[in-house]
Structures are given as C-alpha cells and as structure tokens.
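User: Fold this; tokens only.

Assistant: Input:
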Amino acid sequence: MSILLKNSIEGKVLQMFLDCIVCNNVLLTIENIKAKSSILKEMADKGEIKIIGVYYDLHSGEVIFL
C-alpha cells in the first residue's frame, strides 16, 4: 500500500477491511479443523486441547489472539 493511500481515509478503511478478512480466515480455519478432524474436535470438546486462532500483524509485529 502506498504512503499516500495508507495515510488517507480510504487507506484506513481498506486496512480495516483487510484485517476483517484475515480474522475471518483464521476463524474459518478453526471451524474447518474441527469439522474435518473428529479426533481434534473431541479432544477440544473434552477440554484436553484448545484450538485457538492467532494472527501476526506484519505492520506492527504484534501477535493477536482471537
């Protein structure tokens, strides 16, 4: 993203949109893991494991847990 776009309102809206896409992808991946692996789903349901969503923000270097 160019500096001009990044600092504009449109750029900020675009970044928010992309952040939403990334978060939704992480959440969908968790759903897919549970849907496709009955073993992992059963373990998660019993509390033996936790399946959590996390993403790494390339701009800030922050790790965000969902």
